[in-house]
Amino acid sequence: MSSHDKSSRIENVQNQLLSDNWYVLRKYTYDLIKRNGERQPQSREVYDRGNGATILLYNRPKKTVLLIKQFRMPTYVNGNPTGMLLETCAGLLDNDSPEDCIRKEAIEETGFAVGKVDKLFEAYMSPGSVTEIVHFFAAEYDESQRQNAGGGVEDEDIDVLEVPFTEALAMIKDGRIKDGKTIMLLQHAQIQGWLA
After folding, report:
1. Can you give the pTM of this predicted structure?
2. Which residues contact 132 (CB under 8 A, 6 or more apart)?
3. In DSSP terms, which residues pair with 56 in a beta bridge?
4. How far is residue 31's CA from residue 25's CA, in Å, rounded to a whole number?
5. Alpha-helical regions (H) of the chain
6. CB 92, CB 134: distance < 8 Å
7. pLDDT tens sequence across 101-156
8. C-beta of residue 65 within 8 angstroms of C-beta of residue 168
9. 124-136: b or e for each residue (b if 16 or more CB lie within 10 Å)?
10. Residue 175 DSSP class
11. What is the dihedral of CA 135, 141, 146, 151, to 10 degrees?
């Protein structure tokens, strides 16, 4: 382990609550101990919205994936004219385990009760400002697992789309899919050759 990998690279950590209106936004001030031993005062705002899970639902015989389309205000604010985003099924863990969370989200959002789910990996999605770790899963689906039409709960208004895998990959290239977790899962499926 090199000297700059030590966990004690920061000292004098203080934090100030800025908002807990929806999730929690805090301002952290601290001294960063640089590799040469020099102290550098820094401050960062950190948003804690909890951790999440996402799943790629795919059908080998049909060579399709299930995606959802929903309104995402932050994308609307940042150049997405309709605010609608194509994504893999996902949700915040709340108090569930990642696997329980993603099974529940799959039924709520897509209408499919998935069987075996495979945990692929986990990742920090926006580590410069957001604490969230997302747990990535994949599972095969077929019509026999359909429980309902999907569409989400309460304030959600979700469209469910069954998309040919080759088209989903093309949608990344032409910008119709711009969601990071979705791109990661589709590219993972491509690397693994699940729908070749």
Report:
1. 0.91
2. 48, 49, 50, 51, 52, 124, 125, 126
3. 138
4. 20
5. 73-77, 98-110, 165-174, 180-192
6. no
7. 999 999 999 999 998 899 999 999 999 999 999 999 999 999 999 998 888 877 77
8. yes
9. eeeeeeebbbbbb
10. T
11. 40
